[in-house]
Design brief:
- It is a single chain.
- By secondary structure, the protein is mainly alpha-helical.
- Helix content is 70%, strand content 0%.
- The protein has 14 helices and no strands.
- It has helices at 2-7, 22-44, 58-75, 77-92, 100-107, 109-129, 132-151, 158-185, 192-236, 241-248, 252-260, 266-270, 279-285, 290-322.
- Helix 7 packs antiparallel against helix 14 and helix 8 (158-185) runs antiparallel to helix 9.
- The longest helix is centred in the middle third of the chain and has 45 residues, at 192-236.
- It is globular, with a radius of gyration of 24 Å.
- Residues 333-353 have low confidence and may be disordered.
Amino acid sequence: VLISITDGIKPYGDHVMGWANPSCWGKMLAGLVLLAVFVVVERRSKDPMFRLDMFRIRAFTAGNIATLLASLGRGGLMFMLIIWLQGIWLPQHGYSFEETPLWAGIYMLPLTVGFLIAGPASGYLSDRFGARPFATGGMLVAAGTFALFEVLPVNFRYGAFAGLLLLIGLALGLFSSPNQSAIMNSVPARSRGVGAGMMATFQNSAQVLSIGVFFSLMIAGLATSLPHDMRAGLVDAGVPAKTAERIADQPPVGVLFASFLGYNPMAQLLGDDADTLPKATVDEVTGRSFFPELISRPFRHGLREAFTFALLACLVAAAASWLRGGHYVHEEQVDGDEHAAEGAEGEIALPAT
């Protein structure tokens, strides 16, 4: 399934994405069939990797759904912000393309600072007051931050951008530690290894999935306006219409990955035609500012699509987190015989088997 989604962002024939490729849908169908087979095998196994009966524990199920959606919403965020910095903002503010990978990492540090502040604090407080208010609140703050990112100009003031990075770091820190702790506390002690593996599977799969989803949304957004803007920009710079048409017809995924790598692709896109153009035109087109300014408006469309998706995923994660119930810890009898323990809201946990 993940391979098919990744294939979906690659061009296919005259299509900007690979969803028109029959092999892409074939892989998707094969993956879904294999998932169904996996469920059947695990239900019949004496010692399964996935304890499917643990999904009858509401706190465990809700926590994992929240993990899946939160990872889906934030997994592609880093890529989008790095593309934003490396491909557009940093070159527009005097950084060469060779320098942008380093400085993109430096300018992203407020996100890490926010996580380092909120993570330990929320973990400590959730042990006393339960995971639900912190995990749910974190996802609501994250959704609000994504909404603010949508209205941030492409050529932003760094103070505003850093403030939003700090806020999203605080939100993710508020969510992560309490949510993971609540998931582990909701299962019997002898099943916590399996529970941790299940939680990691949801988290890591969602992060890979989110990259495919975010890039698909970005490519779809770029495809609506990038060809027109690129054609017009190149012609205005003195590039012949035929050459501009050829470059504008290139799949937008190439522009997206060039931005992600902090790389100006205009020299390669011009190809041999650069030898027939005036030096002033070539210097302008391959310079530091032309490519970032050319893709700014189309990139804005793609960003809005991506941030809207992340916002919705965080809202659903917040709802799932709230439905986990109150402060809940699976208990065991002192004599070692495990029993169904009752949570704060009458939740009945599964005994271990």
